[in-house]
């Protein structure tokens, strides 16, 4: 049996590789359909091209872009509003179109904190995704967006407190808060070491982030053994949804 189809929804190019690159690569290697929706940046931009390279490495198909501007980089989507400023109904509608077109069993996105950094685009992408997953299965909402489809499971990419304590100042910038959750909230701890080559390659495909010393760049500067330790585990919390009646529960798990 193939693993369940998986749609990841993240705020920026590189979030997919850093947060869920191992799970995406694993599902693709097992024959599952996988795809990524990215809320910010537009076609033709430098980071969209890097995203396309990363998704090829992960086996996740071409980029699917909602077309909004990064909160801190207006040139990411010239003429478009920042993601956080766009009308909520419009943003949910755009994502529902992708959900109904791709019809995933599982959706993965940021947690409510927006991950370790708490970036406002991450937080808002979490909110939009939770609303869109609920709306996608309701036939009287956004009927022009396609036939209703309710994913069976929604997982939030996150970090437990214990994992954050293991980080050091090579990755954590002094004075910046780090957002994590109690260890008991984690419902799936996934060993992605067998797919680490693909995950690492996808992270490093975001070349402009490597060059400017963002997280991909700080990871690139680490010794391979340290980079492997930091990237070989992914953590997820399952977000409750109304039960889907069309697929068996065994198809909805992110297994270790």
Short recap of the structure:
The chain has 256 residues and is an alpha/beta fold.
Largest sheet data: 7 strands, mixed
Which range does the strand content fall in?
15-25%
Number of strands: 7
Work out the helix count: 9
Structure description:
With 256 residues, the chain is α/β, with parallel strands linked by helices. The chain has helices at 15-29, 46-58, 88-102, 120-136, 161-165, 196-204, 207-211, 215-220, 224-231; strands spanning 6-10, 34-40, 64-68, 106-110, 153-158, 188-191, 233-239. The protein has a 7-stranded mixed sheet with strand order 3-2-1-4-5-7-6, with helices on both faces. Strand 2, helix 2 (46-58) and strand 3 form a beta-alpha-beta unit. It is globular, with a radius of gyration of 17 Å.
Task: Write out key terms for the chains shown.
alpha/beta, 256 residues, 9 helices, 36% helix
Q: What topology does this entry show?
A:
Layout: E1 6-10, H1 15-29, E2 34-40, H2 46-58, E3 64-68, H3 88-102, E4 106-110, H4 120-136, E5 153-158, H5 161-165, E6 188-191, H6 196-204, H7 207-211, H8 215-220, H9 224-231, E7 233-239
Parallel strand pairs: 1-2, 1-4, 2-3, 4-5
Antiparallel strand pairs: 5-7, 6-7
Helix pairs in contact: 1-2, 1-6, 2-6, 3-4
């Amino acid at each position: 049996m193939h693993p369940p189809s998986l749609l990841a929804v993240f705020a920026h190019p590189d979030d997919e590789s850093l947060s869920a690159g191992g799970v995406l690569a694993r599902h693709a290697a097992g024959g599952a359909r996988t795809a990524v929706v990215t809320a910010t940046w537009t076609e033709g931009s430098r980071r969209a091209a890097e995203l396309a390279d990363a998704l090829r490495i992960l086996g996740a198909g071409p980029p699917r872009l909602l077309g909004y501007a990064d909160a801190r980089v207006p040139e990411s989507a010239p003429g478009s509003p920042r993601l956080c400023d766009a009308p909520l109904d419009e943003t949910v509608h755009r994502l529902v179109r992708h959900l109904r077109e791709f019809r995933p069993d599982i959706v993965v996105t940021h947690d409510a904190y927006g991950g370790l950094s708490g970036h406002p685009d991450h937080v808002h992408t979490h909110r939009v995704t939770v609303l869109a997953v609920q709306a996608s299965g309701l036939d009287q909402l956004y009927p022009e967006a396609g036939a209703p489809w309710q994913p069976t499971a929604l997982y939030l990419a996150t970090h437990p407190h214990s994992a954050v304590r293991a980080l050091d100042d090579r990755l954590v910038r002094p004075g910046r808060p780090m957002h994590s959750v109690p260890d008991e909230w984690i419902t799936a701890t996934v060993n992605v070491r067998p797919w680490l080559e693909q995950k690492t390659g996808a992270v490093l495909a975001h070349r402009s982030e490597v060059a400017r010393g963002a997280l991909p760049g700080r990871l690139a500067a680490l010794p391979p053994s340290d980079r492997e330790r930091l990237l070989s585990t992914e953590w997820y919390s399952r977000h409750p949804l109304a039960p889907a009646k069309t697929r068996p529960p065994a198809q909805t798990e992110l297994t270790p």
